[in-house]
Hints:
Low-confidence stretches: 1-8
Mean pLDDT: 93
Strand content: 5-15%
CATH architecture of the largest domain: Up-down Bundle
CATH topology of the largest domain: Butyryl-CoA Dehydrogenase, subunit A, domain 3
Number of helices: 12
Largest sheet: 4 strands, mixed
Distance between the termini: 50 Å
Structural class: alpha+beta
Helix content: 40-55%
Number of strands: 10
CATH class of the largest domain: Mainly Alpha
Radius of gyration: 21 Å
Amino acid sequence: xxxxxxxxxxxxxxxxxxxxxxxxxxxxxxxxxxxxxxxxxxxxxxxxxxxxxxxxxxxxxxxxxxxxxxxxxxxxxxxxxxxxxxxxxxxxxxxxxxxxxxxxxxxxxxxxxxxxxxxxxxxxxxxxxxxxxxxxxxxxxxxxxxxxxxxxxxxxxxxxxxxxxxxxxxxxxxxxxxxxxxxxxxxxxxxxxxxxxxxxxxxxxxxxxxxxxxxxxxxxxxxxxxxxxxxxxxxxxxxxxxxxxxxxxxxxxxxxxxxxxxxxxxxxxxxxxxxxxxxxxxxxxxxxxxxxxxxxxxxxxxxxxxxxxxxxxxxxxxxxxxxxxxxxxxxxxxxxxxxxxxxxxxxxxxxxxxxxxxxxxxxxxxxxxxxxxxxxxxxxxxx
Length: 383
């Protein structure tokens, strides 16, 4: 990343956070409406992120990455999502795959795939959800069966972030349905392999920059060496990163709400009505004051959970509380920010409408709100 002189007295972590914020404001903000308007993956944003060192954040330096901790990662993504959530979430999915390969991949898989993932020449994607399988991930139906030195994959995945353009697919498949989740394995499949069929990108009400689609596998042959995680390990690996993923969604939501509140405050400070500024009307001030309080609470919950993860603790309940609360207050808070701006709040020249659409999607990413309640109440009623 490029640093200005004013960042030289900061710690390396603070420098990286500030550099990511500056990148988002200077490089991302001017074009953030483009991929939403054109309903496509934010390719130019991803390429720019790669050029600025944002595609190897969870990969050790020995493989060319940065290897930052979860707290710093959350702060970086918060600043990026304050400009555009879809780009931030795209980077989460890509970095998570690169980090997983760095931690768990064989020497061969690391040497084959990490260089491209770190420099951004290769775009990664996770494929877990299916058309008929969402929160109950252990029930996936995509099948993999062994045929000599290869595995043959058949089935379909849904809601694949980065899927419209990803080069490397981390595919979760059932190898033996009689074993339930213990039969799930993970394969690294190159997207140009025979038998891989990309489906068109989803038509959504927001978040098109994530390039979300479905991908179908028809007798797709995968060499044995591309077995990333064998049966009995695949499902566990998918679940072990879920707490961090929920914290990151919370951090990104905080970024959107902070941006929306700043936009609304600036607007009412400069807008006249009934002979005075909107900011002088008590009802307006109190409404935005409530949003500010929710944002403060959301930030504290998010970074408390991030701190637990950074310290190596079990953040399951803390992450569930954060994601449940933060996604809820972000959506309602952004709606309130838009309300005080009247019809002008819906104009595309402001980011509020784009953030509000993305905030609805956050309720489903990395576990729906109902799943967070399962985690919370299991702990609440434990004996």
